[in-house]
Amino acid sequence: MRICVFGAGAIGGLIAGRLAIAGEDVTVIGRGPQLGAIKAKGIELRWQDGRVETARVKAVETAPLAGAQDLVVLAVKAHSLERAAADAAALLGPKTMVMTLQNGMPWWYFQKHGGALDGTRLMSLDPSGVLTSTFHANRIIGCAVFVAADVPEPGVVRHIGSNRLPMGEIDGTLSDRVRAVEASFVEAGLQASAVSDIRTEIWWKALGNLAVNPISAISNATRSRSCAFPKRAPSCSR
Known about the structure:
The chain is α/β, with parallel strands linked by helices. The chain has one domain: NAD(P)-binding Rossmann-like Domain (Rossmann fold, 3-Layer(aba) Sandwich). It is about 30% helix and about 30% strand. It has seven helices and eleven strands. Strands 1, 2, 3, 4, 5, 6, 7, 8, 9, 10 and 11 form an eleven-stranded mixed β-sheet that branches. The longest helix has 22 residues. It starts with a strand and ends in an 11-residue tail after the last helix. The relative contact order is 0.14. The mean pLDDT is about 95.
């Protein structure tokens, strides 16, 4: 497949790097120092177990430079989706799939839902309608990201923990195309799995964030620091 990863940060960089190492035709769309570093020396992947790999990928700043793709992996933050949509039309051929990696409720949640709210556009997530109109529901493959990674310096992605990427059709079917994407990701060493209820996986990720993120906000500590905090016996005073 021709695969474009739109967003070359921690998660996008890790996925693009592994797919490229596995032999897929991968292009990343990025910006700033990260894009410059990837163009110059590729993506350096530093794994939790100490392994270091370097992936050479095509890196561009705008979608027209990448051309039509078989799979577009939307790896930008949710607040950047509208800007990405304005540029992404050049990536979309008649059968291009679009995989979404954003945390939280996706704008397509009620597309092909089948319930009483089937087809409802979530105004808070897609107020202008540009996401719904650019990325038709027939293109969408949902994905919940259970991967921890960061970018310690431009061109470098550091894997911190977990590697699970459940993915699925938004109508609940286990289609041939989602099986093909799953196979490509698994071949790349990613813990991908095709599921029949991707919305449940998205809710599991949201519940995890609800439990952990407030602690990080209150303590001004990363998740890894919070989890490593030593246990202390409870105490009380009169």
